[in-house]
Design brief:
Blueprint: E1 16-19, E2 25-30, H1 36-44, H2 48-55, H3 64-71, E3 78-85, E4 88-98, E5 111-118, H4 127-141, E6 146-151, H5 156-163, E7 169-174, E8 177-183, H6 188-210, E9 214-218, H7 227-238, E10 243-247, E11 257-258, E12 261-264, E13 276-279, H8 286-296, E14 300-303, H9 313-328, E15 332-334, E16 340-343, E17 350-353, E18 361-368, H10 371-384, E19 394-399, H11 408-416, E20 423-428, H12 434-445, E21 450-454, H13 472-481, E22 485-487, H14 490-502, E23 510-515, H15 518-530, E24 534-535, E25 539-540, H16 547-559, E26 565-570, H17 581-594, E27 600-604, H18 608-614, E28 683-684, H19 687-708, H20 721-732, E29 738-739, H21 742-750, E30 759-761, H22 765-775, E31 779-783, E32 797-801, H23 804-818, H24 821-824, E33 826-830, E34 836-845, E35 849-856, H25 859-862, E36 867-871, H26 876-884, H27 903-919, E37 923-933, E38 938-940, E39 943-947
Parallel strand pairs: 5-6, 9-10, 9-13, 10-12, 13-14, 14-15, 18-19, 18-20, 20-21, 21-22, 23-24, 23-25, 23-26, 26-27, 27-28
Antiparallel strand pairs: 1-2, 2-3, 3-4, 4-5, 6-8, 7-8, 11-12, 16-17, 16-19, 29-39, 30-33, 31-32, 31-33, 34-35, 34-37, 35-36, 37-38, 37-39
Length: 964
């Protein structure tokens, strides 16, 4: 359809799908000469008032000259964009470059006039705001730095579009017209406005899918059985609060209903709006059904059919076409290959899924990509009769399948301000837009816990998104930096979730342990130690302890300020005075009710009845949430209470989803708030699981405290940012990407205050001796060939050479071991003060952004992968934490009586490298190795820098959905 322009080829990369304020979608694309009829039709549907606001005079119709002007663009000085739904225009925006005199101009003029027109039926949907973001991005690409707009004073809506955008602007009033001028460079405020709009729009788009007023199930069979009939039955059994329709083109004309639900042959035949359509038809029939839904105005789709990207190239093509077709009509999709969605809210009661029974209401949100994991998780939890989908309860459940459209990012946007969700649990096989996910996760984690099981993949099949090249461990570290509680299995997912759902956050790592088994207490003590907690000596109540003994001991532990958490251990007791499971549960719950500010966990062995008793309640509906006592100064606030969960021993990803659950396996559990007001207490069948969940909660609480004061990115007066930019520009002018030579590397790093110790090439022994005399003894002789660099274990480094004789002898030894000077590439370097060898790296990942890494040089980082990672820019607090977060950090702080090294100097080095990479995105990679950190100061002995054109920053551009 698109044609070449007058001066430039059609800019296909300007095309984008956007989510509007009401949750619907629209397509943004350049206007071309082929759009004349669409433009005329669009203009005819605009009210006279809107036309008057656009042209400042009555303008009932467009002339042929107008149509030509508004459809012929050069895509440089004259650009027009349209927002379309169903292929038809709903809004347009254009800019015309002007000179200082206000007349049409070409580059280098950097100002343009901009004007909008939005169809009245679509005003108030945020279309103009979205178009402004996109036309501003286009203008910046074409060298335009400033927009000017003239608006009638009565056109308050359009004035608000400009003034609310967050750009730096100037406003004037002349000749009855408001003139607005604003710079197009993104500002902190404009990015904040854009991201707030993004959150509201994407959250609303998910809300439309999870809280529809009407649902049509397409593909309902006439006979019982089959996917469509099952989903229809699940919706009926759940008591869906809205209108329900059964659709199948094979229904006889005289069929009026299926199981009491109105039966129709097409979505088009439904008399009334349809908010959500569940497509239970084969993949080959889906396109026709999508078209029917789009023409009827359906807002969203759940596509259950398989045979898409998971099946190969043909399926990927089919999936792309599905998304394009749905988005053309403004619809969002969950799926394909989805398990479905659930919303337990009393006013909705939606079970548009293959789950045969509706989970009980609760306050835990669940998201899975895998339908198999979703099936296993829900079915096992339901069979337990408790846990996340039972006693504790689910607020919403989404199984996105191939997540062709709606992804985990969208659901996180929804959960962020969802009042019915207190804890979010996610099983992510892959992370597509890692940069966006970490940004959303950081904001969400500041409000409520986000627990994630992360697979090893990086991008969903069929998505045209940049895949991260970072190792899996690095991505995990970055997620933790963003506040995500990162766990390895579905079992750990639920273990952590149930603790966070109903217990306050621990105020520290100190753990009190009490119970009726000395052995189980010691096991719990050791488990806490192995997880980095600080357990106190266990209190043994003996096997003869009564329920009153447990109550009194727990009450004392809760009142004791020397502990932050209490773990109660329990085994079956012997004797007439031994408490029953129900009595013990009641004793513990009543003690907790008196002092609810400190978290309590139970570790039980062969006490399945205790877990059930702790879960006992007469009502499973969410209760009113009460505020806990305020935390002490400097501690993370306790999260608002939410129902706890049971762990159904859900399968790890490698387990078959339909494997039968072992009935003898004890389950982790939690209790809802009992009728007497006591609090829920999570129970675990193993000390290791309880300790691991507690350690995650402690780490999350610490992150919350740190996030309240993240530190600052310091300024360094000696940084020559402009000089570095000029140097980088000159170097890149020679080619698309290059690894800098020694001199250029030292020059660039020097402009950021990083000094690299000089190393003199030594192609012969005489050159080595001459270099040593210039540098002064003692010196080091190093082999720098790629296969020998940083390999002191191979003998390629000779240190503390005190004179020429030792130097020549060492030179001869290197030649004997490794070959000629050409093969060894020896260099001579002045000796640095003794210290700890470390390595500092920075790399720009196209998906995650710039990442700073730190570790100790040698086996610690190379063999054991003991590296810490932070996203750039790094603050002073983050620089301090990154060097302390590697497992070998004690070597920097005086381990076993050694002299502590100068960690403040190391922190400053990290901050300077972070600034370099953040200031200059062309710096694709930096490696400093080794960095010898001495008791006073440090020395950078080796460095390399690689430059490349900067990758596109999708997080700084206008709002868009993933492209296909």
């Amino acid at each position: 359809m698109q044609s070449a322009s007058d001066r430039h080829e059609y800019p296909a990369h300007w095309e984008a799908d956007v989510v509007l304020r009401d949750g619907g979608t629209a397509r943004v694309r350049p206007i071309t000469v082929d759009d004349a009829d669409r433009l005329v039709s669009f203009y005819e549907q605009v009210s006279d008032e809107s036309k008057y606001y656009r042209f400042f005079a009555p303008y009932p119709r467009l002339s042929a000259k107008d149509v030509r002007r508004f459809t012929h663009h050069d895509f440089v000085d004259r650009v027009g964009l349209a927002a379309t739904v169903g292929g038809e225009f709903i809004a347009t925006v254009r800019y015309d470059r002007i000179g200082g005199d206000g007349m049409p101009a070409s580059a280098p003029a950097d100002e343009a006039e901009v004007a909008f027109l939005v169809q009245d039926a679509h005003q108030g949907r945020g279309v103009a705001s979205a178009l402004l973001e996109h036309i501003a991005a286009v203008a910046r690409e074409r060298g335009i730095r400033r927009f000017a707009a003239e608006v009638l004073p009565a056109n308050n809506k359009m004035i608000k579009v400009f003034t609310d955008a967050g750009y730096t602007q100037k406003r004037s009033f002349e000749d009855g017209v408001v003139r607005l001028e604003f710079d197009l460079e993104p500002t902190e405020r404009s990015m904040a406005v854009q991201r707030a709009r993004e959150q509201r729009a994407e959250a609303h788009s998910v809300r439309r899918l999870l809280a529809p007023g009407s649902v049509a199930v397409v593909g309902v069979g006439r006979a019982p059985g089959g996917v469509g009939r099952s989903v229809l039955g699940n919706l009926r059994e759940a008591g869906f609060a809205g209108s329900l329709y059964a659709v199948n083109k094979a229904f006889p004309a005289d069929l009026k209903d299926v199981d009491g639900v109105p039966a129709l042959r097409s979505v088009r035949d439904i008399d009334g709006p349809v908010d959500l359509a569940v497509l239970a038809v084969p993949a080959e029939r889906v396109p026709d059904v999508v078209t029917e839904c789009g023409e009827h105005g359906v807002q969203g789709l759940v596509v259950l059919a398989a045979g898409y990207a998971e099946s190969g190239p043909e399926g990927r093509h089919r999936q792309r076409e599905l998304v394009r077709r749905a988005r053309a009509y403004g619809m969002r999709i969950i799926g394909p290959n989805a398990f479905g969605v659930i919303n337990t809210a009393p006013g909705v009661r939606l079970n548009a899924s293959l789950a045969p029974e509706m989970p009980r209401p609760g306050r835990i949100g669940l998201f899975t990509q895998s339908g198999a994991i979703g099936v296993a998780l829900l079915s096992r939890l339901h069979r337990r009769g408790g846990g996340v989908t039972g006693v504790t309860g689910v607020s919403t459940f989404v199984s996105s399948g191939n997540r062709a459209d709606v992804s985990g990012n969208d659901v996180v946007q929804y959960w962020y301000d969802d009042p019915d969700t207190d804890v979010a649990l996610m099983y992510l096989e892959t992370i597509g837009n890692a940069r966006k996910f970490t940004r959303l996760a950081r904001r969400t984690a500041a409000a409520k816990p986000l627990v994630v099981v992360q697979g090893a993949g990086s991008a969903p099949q069929g998505h045209a998104v940049q895949a991260t090249r970072l190792p899996h461990a690095t991505v995990s570290a970055l997620l933790r930096q963003a506040g995500v509680i990162r766990v390895d299995t579905v079992t750990e997912l639920v273990d952590a979730g149930l603790l966070l759902a109903r217990q306050p956050l621990p105020r520290g790592p100190r753990v009190a342990i009490l119970g009726n088994s000395e052995s189980l207490g010691l096991l719990t003590y050791d488990a806490c130690l192995s997880e980095g907690l600080r357990p106190l000596p266990p209190l043994d109540l003996t096997t003869e302890a009564s329920a009153e003994d447990f109550h009194a001991a727990l009450a004392r532990a809760l009142a004791d300020e020397t502990s932050d958490t209490v773990v109660v251990t329990a085994i079956p007791a012997i004797g007439e005075a031994s408490p029953t499971d129900a009595e013990l549960a009641q004793a513990l719950r009543s003690a907790v009710a008196a002092r609810p500010a400190k978290p309590v966990l139970v570790v039980h062995v062969e006490l399945g009845g205790l877990a059930e008793a702790l879960s006992a309640a007469t009502s499973t509906a969410p209760r009113a949430r009460t505020a806990a006592p305020p935390p002490a100064t400097g501690t993370a606030p306790d999260p608002a209470p939410a129902p706890a969960a049971q762990d159904p021993e859900a399968p790890a990803p490698s387990e078959a989803p339909d494997a039968p659950a072992a009935s003898a396996t004890p389950e982790a559990s939690a209790t809802p708030e009992a009728p007497d007001g006591t609090h829920l207490i999570p129970a675990y069948p193993a000390a290791e699981r309880a300790a691991r969940a507690l350690a995650e909660a402690v780490g999350y609480a610490q992150w919350r405290r740190d996030a309240a004061d993240p530190g600052k990115v310091p300024e360094f007066e000696d940084i020559d940012e402009k000089g570095a930019a000029d140097l980088i520009g000159g170097l890149l002018a020679r080619g698309q990407g290059l690894t800098l030579g020694t001199d250029a590397t030292r020059d660039l790093l020097g402009r950021y205050g990083v000094t690299v110790r000089a190393a003199s090439p030594a192609p012969t022994p005489d050159h080595a001796a001459r270099a040593a005399r210039d540098l002064g003894y003692p010196v080091a002789l190093k082999a720098t060939a790629p296969h020998l660099r940083h390999r002191a274990d191979l003998g390629g480094v000779r240190l503390d050479l005190a004179d020429e004789e030792q130097l020549r002898r060492a030179y001869a030894e290197l030649a004997d071991l490794f070959g000629t000077a050409h093969e060894v590439r020896p260099v001579v370097q002045a000796m640095a003060p003794r210290g700890v060898d470390t390595v500092v790296r920075a790399v720009v990942d196209p998906a995650a952004g710039a990442v700073l890494s730190f570790g100790l040089a040698g086996a610690a980082s190379q063999l054991l992968g003991d590296m810490a990672h932070r996203l750039v820019p790094v603050t002073d607090r983050e620089a301090a934490s990154v060097i302390r977060s590697v497992r070998t950090a004690p070597l920097l702080f005086g381990w076993r009586g050694s002299t502590p090294v100068d960690t403040p100097a190391l922190e400053e080095l990290l901050l300077r490298i972070s600034r370099l990479v953040d200031d200059h995105p062309e710096v694709a990679a930096v490696t400093l190795e080794p960095v010898v950190v001495a008791p006073h100061g440090l020395t950078v002995l080796g460095a390399s820098v690689r430059l490349a054109p900067p990758p596109a920053r999708d997080d700084l551009g206008p709002r868009t959905l993933p492209a296909y």
